[in-house]
């Protein structure tokens, strides 16, 4: 990274400070979260490890890290207590910046650029950070205004040291580059083969990495980008369907029309008429599509920005003439959202405490109410949550959930809206999910406008950072599954939140019966003392990924529900350390693979050659290999895990029958 160019982009940007805090992690403790906006983390005391997405850094006091919006942060303290500051901010490049600066920004957005290092002169940075924190904490207008001056001084001192120490940043990755390319060349011929050739990767690897990051294949992304641009042209121009088809990369207007109807649900003509007849039109469907991974210049945040709520402002090069319309649309969104503010509790407490689930009925509903009677009850009750007390309906009818879909379905509630990440990848829940459930967007780019349109009476989120924005629409409950030690506790808590205590009780009773049935099915198939492992050698290169019981990919189903035994190394290196999974080299695979092995498969993707260390394993030689489909085992919620456990039990019995 050219640090002169970096500071030049800062100089041509508008900066808004969002939050400054000092946090402490006790010895051996850990914290993890997604950054709601860009941010600096400055560790001033203690030692341990800090992970930025997949990169792990070891620190010993005075360690500084920068990451962009949506980055996953995980800090684990060593033997000593860890003290650190985080500074959250939002940066937007000025539209008046020179073309050269805009080009540099598009190539390396400074506010998304990840880097980490140990400063040579840490106390200089510490003085800036501590001073900013003290002033910010006073919450006075003048002090907070002055903090901004201190923030610029901090960044200046920081970049001086980065330049002096020759620290390099992590460059833009392949998926981000492909997304940028698609948005720049959507009207040209784009194929998997051409993308693979441009980036010099195999088609299989490129497609796998893209889908893992975006939830869509590259070609699906191209189609949706083209359809979004086509909508833009239909609303803003009088171009014919043939002209629009050609402009977005389709020479055959009939093929374009069929594709448009499949994607949008109506023909181009019907869509254009509907939008023109609307009293309030979406000003730019193209803008709403831009991925959170893309590098389009500036971001326009609606009210309170967080990792789950934003829409992009669009490509300034393409839509310079539309600013007045965009301002009017933004004002409209602002007015709509403000009108919803009175329906939720917008107060917010510290990020520490237990998640919601224990309910106490208010005076309006102190009488005992059965589930059926409550259906017509319009009174409210209080829930004690991680964000403080939240007033929710006794029997919510319109529920929106951005992650924990399984527990909601388990207590008999069909949400009006859910994250497409869960709807698409929690495959075992598909039979329980009617088409009436609306898509509120991918995890990481939830549409606040869509949530608002659904008029929920309760929103359930996994992330405290989303609370403030969601609570302006409807009462919001942060549901932290990590608080609950068993699946039954998790379901009971969701039943309390949604007023479905009876349904939760019934599901838990059924869960016990089904768990016992699944265990009995494999009781005489796998010896009691046999060990089993779960591995993935398709989505990783040069290594083998071994799964524990905490994360997705069937670990919870195998070890918690079916009660099967992990190998000693899986237990000590993954389960006891509460890790989801680890990567191990092929040379050490024998240390982790047990008497039986569950292998995660991805359709159409096979490793070229499995090494001898794999083929010589006893589990492989004895045909004790159970294959499961990756896309069905993405989710780790309580309901999905039960269905996965039953599926694994069936596969184990079939494996045993085939061996006879």
* Average of the residue pLDDT scores: 78
Estimated share of beta-strand residues: 15-25%
| Share in helix | 40-55%
What global shape is seen? globular
Strand order of the largest sheet: 1-8-3-6-9
Main sheet properties: 5 strands, antiparallel
Low confidence ranges? 279-376
Structural class of the secondary elements? alpha/beta
Task: Write the SSE topology.
Blueprint: H1 3-11, E1 13-25, E2 30-34, E3 38-45, E4 47-52, E5 55-60, E6 63-67, E7 72-77, E8 82-93, H2 99-107, E9 115-117, H3 122-137, H4 141-165, H5 174-185, H6 192-199, H7 203-214, H8 218-236, H9 241-247, H10 253-264, H11 268-277, H12 285-289, E10 299-300, E11 311-312, H13 323-340, E12 358-361, H14 371-374, E13 380-385, E14 388-393, E15 399-401, H15 405-410, E16 417-418, H16 420-425, E17 438-439, H17 448-453, E18 458-461, H18 467-470, E19 476-478, H19 487-498, H20 501-523, E20 532-536, E21 543-547, H21 555-561, H22 568-575, E22 581-585, E23 596-601, H23 612-615, H24 618-621, E24 625-629, H25 638-659
Parallel strand pairs: 15-16, 15-18, 16-17, 18-19, 20-23, 23-24
Antiparallel strand pairs: 1-8, 2-7, 3-6, 3-8, 4-5, 4-7, 6-9, 10-11, 12-13, 13-14, 20-21, 21-22
Helix pairs in contact: 1-2, 3-4, 5-8, 19-20, 20-25, 21-25
């Amino acid at each position: 990274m050219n640090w002169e160019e970096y500071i030049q982009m800062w100089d041509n940007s508008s900066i808004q400070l969002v939050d400054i805090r000092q946090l402490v992690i006790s010895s051996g403790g850990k914290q993890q979260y997604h950054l709601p906006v860009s941010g600096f983390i400055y560790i001033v005391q203690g030692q341990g490890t800090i992970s930025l997405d997949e990169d792990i850094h070891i620190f010993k006091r005075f360690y500084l890290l920068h990451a962009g919006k949506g980055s996953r942060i995980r800090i684990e303290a060593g033997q000593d207590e860890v003290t650190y500051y985080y500074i959250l901010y939002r940066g937007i490049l000025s539209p008046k910046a020179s073309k050269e600066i805009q080009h540099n920004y598009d190539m390396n957005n400074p506010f998304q650029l990840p880097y980490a290092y140990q400063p040579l002169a840490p106390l200089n940075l510490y003085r800036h950070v501590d001073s900013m924190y003290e002033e910010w904490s006073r919450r006075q207008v003048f002090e907070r205004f002055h903090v901004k001056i201190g923030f610029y001084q901090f960044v200046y001192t920081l970049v001086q040291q980065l330049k002096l120490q020759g620290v390099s940043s992590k460059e833009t990755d392949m998926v981000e580059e492909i997304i940028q390319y698609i948005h720049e060349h959507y009207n040209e011929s784009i194929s998997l083969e051409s993308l693979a050739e441009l980036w010099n990767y195999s088609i299989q690897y490129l497609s796998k990495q893209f889908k893992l990051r975006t939830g869509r294949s590259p070609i699906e992304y191209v189609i949706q980008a083209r359809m979004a641009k086509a909508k833009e042209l239909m609303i803003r121009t009088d171009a014919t369907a043939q002209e629009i088809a050609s402009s977005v990369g389709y020479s055959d207007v009939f093929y374009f029309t069929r594709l448009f109807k499949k994607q949008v649900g109506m023909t181009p003509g019907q869509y254009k008429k509907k939008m023109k007849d609307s009293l309030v039109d979406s000003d730019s469907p193209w803008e709403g599509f831009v991925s959170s991974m893309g590098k389009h210049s500036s971001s326009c945040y609606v009210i309170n920005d967080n990792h789950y709520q934003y829409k992009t402002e669009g490509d300034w090069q393409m839509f310079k003439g539309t600013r007045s319309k965009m301002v009017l649309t933004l004002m409209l969104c602002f007015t709509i959202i403000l009108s919803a503010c009175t329906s939720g509790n917008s107060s917010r407490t510290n990020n520490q405490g237990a998640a919601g689930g224990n309910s106490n009925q208010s005076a309006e509903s102190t009488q005992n109410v059965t589930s059926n009677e409550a259906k017509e009850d319009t009174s409210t009750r209080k829930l004690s949550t991680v964000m403080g007390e939240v007033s929710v309906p006794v029997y919510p009818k319109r529920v929106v959930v951005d992650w924990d879909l399984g527990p909601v379905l388990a207590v008999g509630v069909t949400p009006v809206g859910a994250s497409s990440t869960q709807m698409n990848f929690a495959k075992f829940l598909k039979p329980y999910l009617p088409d009436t459930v609306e898509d509120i967007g991918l995890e990481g780019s939830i549409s606040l406008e869509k949530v608002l349109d659904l008029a929920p009476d309760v929103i359930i989120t996994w992330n405290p950072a989303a609370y403030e924005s969601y609570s302006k629409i409807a009462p919001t409950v942060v549901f932290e599954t990590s608080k609950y030690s068993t699946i039954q506790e998790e379901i009971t808590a969701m039943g309390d939140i949604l007023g479905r205590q009876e349904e939760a009780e019934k599901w838990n009773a059924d869960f016990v019966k089904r768990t016992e049935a699944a265990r009995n099915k494999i009781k005489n198939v796998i010896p009691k003392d046999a060990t089993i492992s779960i591995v993935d050698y398709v989505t990783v290169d040069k290594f083998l990924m071994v799964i524990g019981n905490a994360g997705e990919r069937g670990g919870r189903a195998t070890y918690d529900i079916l009660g099967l035994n992990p190998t000693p190394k899986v237990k000590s290196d993954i389960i006891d350390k509460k890790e989801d999974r680890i990567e191990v080299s092929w040379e050490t695979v024998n240390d982790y693979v047990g008497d039986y092995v569950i292998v995660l498969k991805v359709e159409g993707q096979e490793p070229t050659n499995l090494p001898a260390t794999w083929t010589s394993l006893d589990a492989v030689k004895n045909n004790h290999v159970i294959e499961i489909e990756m896309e069905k085992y993405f989710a780790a919620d309580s309901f999905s895990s039960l269905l996965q456990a039953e599926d694994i039990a069936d596969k184990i019995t079939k494996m045993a029958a085939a061996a006879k």
